Amino acid sequence: METMSTSPPMIEASKLTKRYGDFVAIENVDFSVGKGEVVAFLGPNGAGKSTTMKILTGYLSPTSGEARIAGVAVANDRLHAARIIGYLPENGPLYPEMTPREVLAFFSEARGLSGEAARRRTDEVVEICTLGGVLDKPIRKLSKGFRQRVGMAHVLLHEPEVLIMDEPTSGLDPNQILHVRETIRKLGETKTILLSTHILQEVEAVASRVIMIAGGRVVFDGTCDELRSKGEGNLDQAFHTLTGAA
């Protein structure tokens, strides 16, 4: 007799609602992401993607509902959840006068890595993110694409099981976008990834599943093919059909 897995989802949003006075940013957002999935979190600007991600990572508290990471209630045990998550916000802050080498050393220490373990892991993320040629160059002199790679490298240092990325290719040129997508595909072989985007090409390039949000509510959860069917085979039309009213 086959036994079913009892492991919890790696990412779980349960009836998440966030209000600012009379303004409702998200309402009853409900979804889960299983181990090893790469899921695109899609929606127009202002739909509630960033708010949801900030709640999932513990940067915001929900007005109601619960966020869980690998079964850990984020609001109850933020530090435990932080050990499981690597969070890359849109335009994540970096220290412009530091070099990538200095940034990685700083975050290694902040994550409790030292000695040979820190050196080994730094070498690994430098290779994953292709930073070898700019390690000793001030971050303020790097292109946006390389700054994004530095951000991705430091969130990978502690080997998180879950990666949550908010618009990781925003503002990049086509070559930089291709590099980031390839990195995400490679990371998706061993990690659970929730990737926020409003770029439809991103969905087809990296994701096995799509969750779409509009007007603060989930309006679609399914595969790329299922999404395409909502627009008679056209992703742009499907996007408009599902989000246009919101």
Descriptive notes:
The protein has helices at 49-56, 78-84, 100-110, 115-128, 144-156, 174-187, 200-206, 224-229, 235-243, and strands at residues 11-20, 23-33, 38-42, 64-69, 72-73, 85-88, 162-166, 192-197, 209-214, 217-222. It has a domain at 11-91 and 160-240: Rossmann fold (3-Layer(aba) Sandwich). The protein is α/β, with parallel strands linked by helices. Helix 4 (115-128) packs across helix 5. It is built from 9 helices and 10 strands. 36% of the residues lie in helices and 25% in strands. It is globular. The protein starts with 10 loop residues before the first strand and ends with a helix. The longest helix is centred in the middle third of the chain and has 14 residues, at 115-128. A 6-stranded mixed β-sheet has the order 6-7-8-3-9-10, sandwiched between helices. A 4-stranded antiparallel β-sheet has the order 2-1-4-5, covered by helices on one side. Strand 9 and strand 10 form a beta hairpin.
